[in-house]
Amino acid sequence: MERTLKELKTGEKGLIVKVLGEKGPVKKRLMDMGVTRGAEVLVRKVAPLGDPIEVNIRGYELTLRKAEAQNIIIE
Amino acid sequence: MSLKFALVGNPNCGKTTLFNEITGSTQYVANWPGVTIEKREGKAKRLKEDVLIIDLPGIYSLSPYSMEEVIARDYIVNEMPDVVINIVDGTNIERNLYLTTQLIELGVNVIVALNMMDSVDAKGDKIDLATLESSLNLPVVPITASKGKGVKELLDRALSVAQTAASGHSSPQLQEIHNKSIIASIEEIESRILPELESEVQNPRWTALKLLEGDEKVQETLKVPVSLLIRLKAYQERLEKNFDMDIETVIADSRYQFTTNVARKVVKKKADNSDLTISDKIDKVVTNRILAIPLFLALMFGIFSITFGTIGSSTIDFVDVLVNETIADFVLTALEGAGAAVWLQDLIVGGIIGGLGSMLVFVPQIMILFFFLSVLEDTGYMARAAFVMDRLLRKLGLSGKSFIPMLIGFGCTVPAVMSARTLENEKDRRLTIMLVPFMSCGARLPIYALYTAAFFARNQTVVVFSLYILGIIVAILSGILLKKTILKGEVAPFVMELPPYRIPTLKGLMIHMWDRGKGFVKKAGTIIFAAAVIIWFLQYFNYSFQAVSEPADSMLGSIGGVIAPLFAPLGFGDWQSAVALLTGFIAKEAVVSTMGILHGVAEATESSTDLITALQTVFTPLTAYAFMAFSLLYLPCMAAFATIKREMNSWKWTMITIGYSTGVAWLVAFLIFQIGKLLGFS
């Protein structure tokens, strides 16, 4: 089943299928940080005020906002 | 001729630690031309050969979108260092090698310094160095920079790479990284498109790849004509269709496939790895839903009370006495002894020493504050603070990283503006710098103390508190306004690594602190020196360059008289207030002493009863409040001004900042006075 990274709950894992959005700085930054097809992500936690979120990807901790997580398709 | 080695690596990979270890005290810190990104250089100590080490900014990639990344890649492409030392964090090979792949694409001489080997061992992981070397086709040297282990071997290997390179040894090729269809496109672009360009291409393989990737910076540099761009588009679309992703993603994906494979081959994880690391345990508390914010505030309060509380202010008093009494008296005696003219004595002692003293008193405090900031940064806490506070600041169009500068602003604007350096995005940094002066700093307190004692004796605390709140409200509204107008732009992405917690080395912290503090003294010093001399001059002479005895007769006095009507709609149109506000530029607390001089009260402090009585005849509670609001918001003091100039690195933005704050100050004071009058206050 396909979902976005934003919909994943704390402690849930998934494989990245696709990153949506136009070519440009934001998307490139995600790519450069290793958010690419096939990478496994684990949602670690949500910040105290509800945004951003912290995920574990490629063996390190990454934080991104829900607005960005919404463009990441997971299965 | 000396050799040049450049250090390249991800943020938090221990690059600066390695740089400090190699260069020791020879390092030199400046900015890269045109930007406020630090450039560090130093000579390699303990080497017979003359080697210059250049520390490039910490980066994850060589994309054209971030200033740091463009600087690093321009440096490598244009300055052609003899060897690029790529520092790779051994605990996170997969992501760190992504940058390595791009260095290989550049075709330069790369040597990999595999750092944090002590952490790898502690975790019980194994890295197969021989396989790593052969997969990358690069020399790999294991090191532990924080303990100085492996550094000598690294430099020896780098030297031999530099020597072999000179004899024409071939460097690894990008065929090993990318898949066949990408390589085919690169080769076609290289043979069919590049020859049609007017300028000669230095690095054809890399240039072809960048053109395929659609890199606008490279297109600009080469002045690629539209006809060729259309042909390039065809290559891009072919790959985009094949892989069903945009071209940048195709290339990035291909690089990551390579690094994932390499990491899989060379890293042998300890079988059981489900335990929480120490870093995870700390994080459980530090970014905990309930504890995170109280903990953050407690930490800030702690740093704040040490820096601006008893310890910090005792350093102010110490420097104040040292400069304004001990040194000033000594110099004065010496000048009198030498028979110097009275005006010269006053220029040197009153103008220059006094002016520089007003800045020097902040130095110990700034050093203390920067020490703590370095601790927060080097341990990895700063990233967590940004994570915790991001939501709140996003509403103002800022990111979580702006919170710390804002908070420091309540102590002193100077270090607050400097700490905005931790923001990578230039627009965010500018906006933060523009808002910081609205946080009511410590030097404004004497003004509040004087005026509230004179007019609001019964509820002093409430009135002072309301001024702090006023500053915050103005900052919030300004943030929203500026983000919609002159600092309009995309919301910078908040995609950030949360590095593992590390115990910083004392040496690292000291170097970090000293670099920043030294910069302040040097750069701010020159502007303050000039400003102090000019203000002294205006205060001391009249237009016929004769020394005056009455301040009203000086040039400054007459300037005050000229600009005083500007303040009439705010409720304080007398020339004394105008002059006091002008001298507030030297230091905000100077408003109090100037008011004293102009109202004929010698050695005035905020509790002088004579001065309070004098003010009560000139001001009403309403005009006093408008005056305090104006003092809070109008142009920051000279030291802050110099720092803003240095950090903005642009006269235009410095002028916009002080113009904006003074405009806002006028408007707010105007509204307070006029609306207050309408409501029947006096």
Automatic annotation (TrEMBL), chain A:
Q: What is the superkingdom listed in this entry's lineage?
A: Bacteria
Pfam families in alphabetical order? FeoA
Query: Entry's PANTHER family?
Result: FE(2+) TRANSPORT PROTEIN A (PTHR42954)
Looking up SUPFAM superfamilies in the UniProt record yields: C-terminal domain of transcriptional repressors
Q: What is this protein called?
A: Ferrous iron transport protein A
Q: Which SMART domains match?
A: FeoA (SM00899)
Q: Ferrous iron transporter FeoA-like domain: which residues?
A: 3-75
Record GO terms (molecular function):
transition metal ion binding
Alphabetized, the UniProt keywords read: Iron
Q: Does Coiled coil count among this protein's keywords?
A: no
| Annotated Gene3D superfamilies | 2.30.30.90
UniProtKB/TrEMBL annotation, chain B:
Q: Pfam families per the record? A: FeoB_C, FeoB_Cyto, FeoB_N, Gate
CDD domains reported in the protein's UniProt record: FeoB
Transmembrane stretches, start-end: 290-311, 326-344, 356-376, 396-419, 431-456, 462-482, 520-542, 554-572, 579-602, 622-644, 656-676
Residues annotated as binding GTP: 9-16, 34-38, 55-58, 115-118
Q: What is this protein called?
A: Ferrous iron transport protein B
Where can this protein be found? Cell inner membrane; Cell membrane
Q: State the annotated membrane topology for this chain.
A: Multi-pass membrane protein
Q: Which domain of life is it from?
A: Bacteria
Q: Which residues form the FeoB-type G domain?
A: 2-164
Q: Where does Mg(2+) bind?
A: 20, 23-24
Give the record's keywords alphabetically.
Cell inner membrane, Cell membrane, GTP-binding, Ion transport, Iron, Iron transport, Magnesium, Membrane, Metal-binding, Nucleotide-binding, Transmembrane, Transmembrane helix, Transport
The record's GO CC annotations read: plasma membrane
Looking up SUPFAM superfamilies in the UniProt record yields: P-loop containing nucleoside triphosphate hydrolases
List, alphabetically, the InterPro entries matched.
Answer: Fe2_transport_prot-B (IPR003373), Fe2_transport_prot_B_C (IPR011640), FeoB_Cyto (IPR041069), FeoB_GTPase (IPR050860), G_FEOB_dom (IPR030389), Gate_dom (IPR011642), GTP-bd (IPR006073), P-loop_NTPase (IPR027417)
Q: What does this protein do?
A: Probable transporter of a GTP-driven Fe(2+) uptake system.
